[in-house]
Batch of 4 targets.
Target 1
Amino acid sequence: MGYVAVVAASPRAGGNSDAAADLFARGAAEAGAQVRRAALRDFRVLPCTGCGACAVPPHACVLAGDDSAEELFALCLGASAVAVASPIYFYHLPALFKAWIDRAQSLYARRQAGDPALAALPRRPVFACLVAGRPRGEQLFGGSLLTLKYFFSPQGLDLVEPLVFRGIDEPGDLLADADACAAILAAGRKAGAEALR
Ligand SMILES: Cc1cc2nc3c(=O)[nH]c(=O)nc-3n(C[C@H](O)[C@H](O)[C@H](O)COP(=O)(O)O)c2cc1C
């Protein structure tokens, strides 16, 4: 049986995206799946320096081994489904998440070069939940969703049914929204079903 990887991306412990990650995990477990969790703030991830080393074979990152970026990639590459929960910071994803995203340049390079291990991976779904404090704003999530799509795609992971919630600011705001919680729980169950197939 596979597992569902649940990634929480907020620097703030016990906040809204942690609550979303809990709901994803609960839904997946209710579906009968194994769940493996990671809160990005518990990992050290160095930012990409744009050195260009990964552009040439073997497309390795010079920082691999100096931090936990590869461990986090392994978690997602091995998963039957991924669920990610993040706040919006200045209309995008928080810096600790963006640092990890930029480190996927080596995976992008490997995918472009036709890396057989990546090519052999089945396409799997990524369920995302984004929370933002502002109650309105048409473009609040657009940039983040594009970034998530292109971050996960080289890993064989396709963004499906992103859940976005506005006006969620103080810790506890998400849990006070019963409809939002039900939607995240249901997405967690769908992620769990993927691990049983
Ligand atoms: C540095 C920072 C930047 C933020 N930028 C935005 C923003 O651009 N738009 C918005 O709607 N909310 C913004 N917020 C509010 C958070 O998205 C909101 O508080 C969210 O619920 C935090 O999620 P968490 O509890 O999982 O950390 C920002 C918060 C912080 C700390």
Target 2
Amino acid sequence: MATQNTSERAIVNCLECGAIVAAEAANDGSFVPIGTEDECTCGSSAFRKFR
Ligand SMILES: [Zn+2]
């Protein structure tokens, strides 16, 4: 079955406001915050891997 979850989880921080959030790696290599909308509370959707 194609139900296996291979998404990498990481701690990332927002490039705009610096907020640190838990995220999941998307197929295109970007990160999507977990438990929120697809973007930071500041409205940015650019994240950098924190660790
Ligand atoms: Zn932000």
Target 3
Amino acid sequence: MMMDLSKLIGAMAITFTCSQAIAISCGTNFKPIENKATVMTDESGQFRLWKKEDQKSLTYCISNKFRELKPVIEKAMRIATQDWMNHGNIKFIYVPDADESCDARKGPETLFRIELNRSRRYRYAGRAFFPYDERNTITFKKKFVEGNFDSLLRLTRHELGHVLGLRHEHIREENPYRDRCMESDTFSGVTQYDPASVMHYARCGGTGTTELSEGDKLGLSLLYPFPN
Ligand SMILES: [Zn+2]
């Protein structure tokens, strides 16, 4: 079904950030709609996104420390990466041959790595990074990998959203519960505020939806447009 784009934009939200150190192609082929989406920016408002030469080779390895949980995280990554790839001109590539060295101190052979934290005290369910951060790891807390698979899928989609440059949706000014969940304000709206975004914490006024929202999909397609 074809959707009226203006209605779709009105129905969604994504938030971005661009870093000053990384004057990326953010913004060169995308004109932000003022106050309408959520992407990472630097202080000058440049979007922090993967450059053209990298966006089609987002390679990753998965630590063997997942042990018996490895098939679970492999499946979650396979589904969640495909979801985002369906809506933007990006490509995630799993490199199983690099798993052996995924925990190596000198760094993985891939662009980023997936690791497990088994500590019950680890304070994050998942923790990711933004494009070109020094940190290039997504960390999952064990409890969430062995728990409900739909919740793990939502978490995986969320962390991959950060990897693609997306900020938390709940930091938008339009969120009436924003005060509960304040963060740095180096971001720019790309689509309209969207409580259904996977980038929105449920406890900060979000719907807690597991799937990518229409806003998430539109946002990604605006940030990483497919060639015409
Ligand atoms: Zn997050």
Target 4
Amino acid sequence: MTQVISSDRVGPGGILSPQEIEEINADLSHYEDNQAVCIDALKIVQKHRGWVSDECVEAIADYLKISAAAVEGVATFYNLIYREPVGKKVIRVCDSVSCWVMGYETVRDRLKSELGIEYGETTADGEFTLLPGPCMGACDHAPVVMVDNDLHEDVDESKVKAIVEHYKP
Ligand code: FES
């Protein structure tokens, strides 16, 4: 069983919060090695901060005693980890093959015009970030859009405005 690290030991600059460390430690008690905790540690930090900065990647690496490159590799591979600040809600548009065949471009373009932003941008009010995304596992209901954890299936141009309105504060 993996040894749980004392919560008084934090990463560079002590930037991991006590709450983050407590949650990471809870995961450490369930896994055989610290590397396996890496993705959960990234998710924990993102849950508390909205995204994962370079400093947080280094702090996680230091805390788990693995290389920053290894943490960075996991963060890069896992597309739900954001390495730059994002809006309060992240809208991802599937651009994989089924959604492409079903004309995701019209949905994407309507989202861009509805939000007034391009891919990778955040609305001026900080509410929405728009990103492309890989297959979301609902290919038989393409095109598919995900808003945070909510999957919207069979989306067409005419549904975009209602989807955006639904998530506005
Ligand atoms: S290709 Fe879009 S959900 Fe699978």
